[in-house]
Amino acid sequence: MVKKKILPIMLALFAALGLALLARPVQAAEPNYVITTDATYAPFDFQDKNNEYIGIDMDILKEVAKREHFTYTLKPMSFNAAAQLVANGQADGIIAGMMINDERKQVYDVSTPYYQSGVAWITKKGSSIKSLKELKGKTVALKTGTAAAEYGKQQQKKYGFKIKYFNDTDTMYNDVANGNSAATFEDYPVIAYAIKNGMKLQVMNPHNLGNAGGVGFFVQKGHNAELLAAFNRGFASIKKDGTYDKIINKYLNSKQSKFTGDAADNNSMWGILRSNKSAFMKGLWETIVLTVLAIILASLWGILLGVMGISQSKWIRGTSTTIIYAFRGLPLMVLAFFIYIGLPGVIGTKIPAFTAGLLTLILNEGAYTGAFVRGGFEAVDSGQMEAARSLGLPYGTAMRKVVIPQGLKIMIPSFINQFIITLKDTSILSAIGILELTQTGTLIVARNSQGFRVWAIVAAIYLIVITLLTWFSNWVQRRIKY
């Protein structure tokens, strides 16, 4: 009897609960955007001691996203690649201390300027050069694609100096500090921050800066109007309540050690290794994964090209020769940019950086592998094939059971050499934002300005891994009996 009374009550409660849930408004999922940046541009963008991306840009973006209810996926890479990804529609926006100018407005839609800057010209500390006129005939270092580089190029016409370009800020600074270049041009807050934190350079025009204009947030022209509007609203909000001023003061009035850890850690290679061990390990792991996958897949692709290269069909041989010629002839970085930045614009599909990097290695290393595989097969005495055919073996079977096994043994030293080259070539993929060992070193240098020590550590890690790979390859070679 009690059960009969309870059942209607329970049904009524569930019905009421269901109606209440249906009556509640369904909240739309927050939009997620892909945002690119150059993480070697302190104080706008850099890494802290925990390998988190921080800086004026990062704090502004984080605060705006929170207030405007959107999320984002950050993609740090070289400045040029970061800008091109947005221009080609593979990323939604870029925030990287990027100056607003007329040329960029033709390619991008841009936000309200969130910082006003000027261009400084800089020499190494103690330089005898005191005026721009004294740069005539000398070399000036510029960072590719920046407004400061454009300003410097304009000054070249007037003062007659030579120009060389760099893809990252720290390398450009050290080129001047080491005396390889006589001067550079840079956004004033960036160089002032670097000098305050130990870079041995000096600003020559602190009170008469060149005109750089405002710094903005950029999206592809004609696209992502909602994201741009959200950024402008969010920026107006943080500007109004004082959050913006706190962000600016946080970075421009603080020592870099506040964000990058104990300055004493930077006084020795052991200290740098200890304080950045997790970053080095992650970079090394990414390098190893890329290398192993590329070695396996490029070897298979190369063997296929080599077999095609000695086919009886002239069309198959021609195809193999054409593929090997094309991908051996392309510089690795050009191929990486083509696959990651150029190709998606044609096929209309985004390609992840890791996939693009792996495909780059497979195509390039596989072409070289195919060339020496074909040569290895051709090095097998022609009498071996004739003997196999005289015993009644078909061409394909004779190749598979007689020629190929002997040819592969001849090729082992070439395979070992190609494995080592593949490992080293992974460093080039840092240009498209893959966080392997070289890119890890770049980010750490941007953080602590200890170029010599950091690159010595990176070089030592590469040498250790190459040595282990060589030992393993030689062990495999000894196990194979000729």
Tell me what the CATH architecture of the largest domain is.
Answer: Orthogonal Bundle
Number of helices: 19
Termini, distance in Å?
Answer: 90 Å
Task: Please report the first level of CATH classification, the CATH class of the largest domain.
Answer: Mainly Alpha
At the fourth level of CATH, the homologous superfamily of the largest domain is MetI-like
How much helix, percentage-wise, in residues?
A: 55-70%
CATH topology of the largest domain: MetI-like fold
Biggest pleated-sheet summary: 10 strands, mixed
Strand content: 5-15%
Protein name: Periplasmic component/domain (HisJ)
Organism: Eupransor demetentiae
InterPro entries: AA_ABC_transptr_permease_3TM (IPR010065), ArtM/GltK/GlnP/TcyL/YhdX-like (IPR043429), Glu/Gly-bd (IPR019594), Iontro_rcpt_C (IPR001320), MetI-like (IPR000515), MetI-like_sf (IPR035906), Solute-binding_3/MltF_N (IPR001638)
Main location: membrane
Key terms:
19 helices, alpha/beta, MetI-like fold, two-stranded antiparallel sheet, 482 residues, 3 domains, D-Maltodextrin-Binding Protein, domain 2, 12 strands
Q: Could you explain the architecture of this structure?
A:
The chain has 482 residues and is an alpha/beta fold. The chain has three domains: 32-114 and 215-252, Periplasmic binding protein-like II (D-Maltodextrin-Binding Protein, domain 2); 116-214, 3-Layer(aba) Sandwich (D-Maltodextrin-Binding Protein, domain 2); 272-479, MetI-like fold (Orthogonal Bundle). Helix content is 60%, strand content 13%. It is built from 19 helices and twelve strands. It has helices at residues 2-23, 56-68, 79-87, 102-105, 147-159, 169-177, 188-196, 225-240, 243-252, 257-260, 269-275, 277-309, 314-329, 332-347, 353-379, 382-390, 395-425, 437-448, 451-479; strands at 32-37, 46-47, 53-54, 71-76, 93-99, 108-110, 115-124, 139-143, 162-166, 183-187, 201-203, 210-220. Strands 1, 4, 5, 6, 7, 8, 9, 10, 11 and 12 form a ten-stranded mixed sheet that branches. Strands 2-3 form a two-stranded antiparallel ribbon. The termini are far apart. The model is unreliable at 13-17 and 19-27 (pLDDT under 50).
